[in-house]
């Protein structure tokens, strides 16, 4: 049998070192290639992913953006331009500059609408908050059927102003209404109510109080239940009576809620429209014509849309001033309450 040739081999140490060196170089090359290619690969993978997420996000928010633009931003911008034009919404408009605003300052009907609105606001806002606070103080006690009483007081707030107007138009009808029937039974002469220029606006205030006080009751009741019992207990231990508790503990704790109610009710009072439209339509003799009804009448009844838009922006500026003023008052009160109280005899 022929003898096989002896294989040629390198020394053990040299062979092992070269192998490890080659293996290390190969591993370094692989690591370098992987490290160099990872950012590029990551960018390739992440870019389509990010574009997909961005497209999905825009697909979700685009309907809301279109609604906001279509129902608020664009109409506001268009009405601002309209207030400087003479337009009837049918024929081409004509630029008149500040003439609409000058005409408002000289219009006796607009002045009467401003007076009626201010009188309505001055009567409705403090009465609704005051009556609401008084009822909330009563309903904050542990009395029988208190849940039923709270529900009955809040129910009129849920009823729409249109339904309220129709209801009270029947009740206060001077000839066939139930109110004059009750007054006749009591021996009181019939009243004109909504047909009397001297009574119509006061009657509207009373109807608004019937419906709007429930909201104030709920808000005040929540604020009363949020007053810390420890403060009330400490004041009672110091000998404070019921009125002192109300004045020095309860009302200061309710200050933020009171400012909110004042702003909310003022804005609602300045924007009253539907109750006037259903009941009196601004009459009799313009005694219940408020600013918003005046705007509607000029824009959609007299077809002077530019004039109505100018009146609308006068109202918008008034609302902005009221809101800013009340916020400044609230900020000043908060800074005053945040100051440290210096006790008598301190530091002696």
Main beta sheet strand tally, sense and closure:
2 strands, antiparallel
| Radius of gyration from CA coordinates | 37 Å
Fraction of residues in β-strands: under 5%
What would the principal axes of the Cα set say about the shape?
globular
End-to-end Cα distance, whole Å, is 122 Å
Order of helices and strands: HEEHHHHHHHHHHHH
Q: What topology, given as strand order, has the largest sheet?
A: 1-2
Class computed from helices, strands and strand pairing: mainly alpha
Count of beta strands = 2
Tally of DSSP helical segments: 13
* Multimerization state: single chain
**Residue-averaged pLDDT:** 82
Level of helix content? over 70%
How is this structure best described in words?
By secondary structure, this protein is mainly α. The protein has 13 helices and 2 strands, in the order H-E-E-H-H-H-H-H-H-H-H-H-H-H-H. The protein has helices spanning 12-82, 99-105, 108-139, 146-158, 161-171, 178-185, 200-225, 229-237, 242-253, 255-270, 274-279, 291-301, 305-338, and strands spanning 85-86, 94-95.
Topology, please?
Elements: H1 12-82, E1 85-86, E2 94-95, H2 99-105, H3 108-139, H4 146-158, H5 161-171, H6 178-185, H7 200-225, H8 229-237, H9 242-253, H10 255-270, H11 274-279, H12 291-301, H13 305-338
Antiparallel strand pairs: 1-2
Helix pairs in contact: 2-13, 3-7, 3-10, 4-7, 10-13, 12-13
